[in-house]
């Protein structure tokens, strides 16, 4: 494969905090798509959520601790350096400028995030920059709303091979082998309630949360 056709993925999120659902999905996605690297990019100020309790810098540090030396996964702080809301379309435009117009660029999102895609900033534009790969997530089987169908249906492909024939513009729904019903919401609830989060996130992340006193209920 030429350098120009390298395969680059992006998995954005709040990572509040990063957990094994994110990380195992990232490893399996890296393998399923034969990516050269997958950028995991914490949002500075997620446009569709309230303000997270833990700072963006702390969320990034937890992410970097969680990734450790995992081959092919990159903790990418670029959205932290940008002012204002984090729009994926801006991040993809930056990545596209870096990797050139022939690289296969993939934005991966979980099915829950996918259901809100039409509310994102310039969703049509995403497909001029990247492919969209949607990862199944346990507990989310809702049918696609009509507006979302309209956005993605004509872009649908059924295999990684077909997706990777072009640099951008396709939509693939992917069921990765290890479906994990772990959410950051549940982890924050456990931590607030003083319950164990063992085996939901990597040990270094658990330790950093404990040492920093993060996600504790404020008295
Ligand atoms: P929260 O519970 O706070 O909403 P979350 O666990 O959904 O958080 P996000 O940071 O919002 O985590 O997720 C980042 C991306 O990873 C999203 O596209 C989301 O759909 C996906 N994702 C999160 N958890 C999983 C999981 N267990 N399996 C597969 N994908 C996941």
TrEMBL record:
<feature type="domain" description="Cytidyltransferase-like">
    <location>
        <begin position="10"/>
        <end position="189"/>
    </location>
</feature>
<dbReference type="InterPro" id="IPR014729">
    <property type="entry name" value="Rossmann-like_a/b/a_fold"/>
</dbReference>
<keyword id="KW-0520">NAD</keyword>
<dbReference type="GO" id="GO:0009435">
    <property type="term" value="P:NAD+ biosynthetic process"/>
</dbReference>
<keyword id="KW-0548">Nucleotidyltransferase</keyword>
<comment type="similarity">
    <text>Belongs to the NadD family.</text>
</comment>
<comment type="pathway">
    <text>Cofactor biosynthesis; NAD(+) biosynthesis; deamido-NAD(+) from nicotinate D-ribonucleotide: step 1/1.</text>
</comment>
<dbReference type="Pfam" id="PF01467">
    <property type="entry name" value="CTP_transf_like"/>
</dbReference>
<dbReference type="InterPro" id="IPR004821">
    <property type="entry name" value="Cyt_trans-like"/>
</dbReference>
<keyword id="KW-0808">Transferase</keyword>
<keyword id="KW-0067">ATP-binding</keyword>
<keyword id="KW-0662">Pyridine nucleotide biosynthesis</keyword>
<dbReference type="InterPro" id="IPR005248">
    <property type="entry name" value="NadD/NMNAT"/>
</dbReference>
<keyword id="KW-0547">Nucleotide-binding</keyword>
<comment type="function">
    <text>Catalyzes the reversible adenylation of nicotinate mononucleotide (NaMN) to nicotinic acid adenine dinucleotide (NaAD).</text>
</comment>
<dbReference type="GO" id="GO:0005524">
    <property type="term" value="F:ATP binding"/>
</dbReference>
<dbReference type="GO" id="GO:0004515">
    <property type="term" value="F:nicotinate-nucleotide adenylyltransferase activity"/>
</dbReference>
<protein>
    <recommendedName>
        <fullName>Probable nicotinate-nucleotide adenylyltransferase</fullName>
        <ecNumber>2.7.7.18</ecNumber>
    </recommendedName>
</protein>
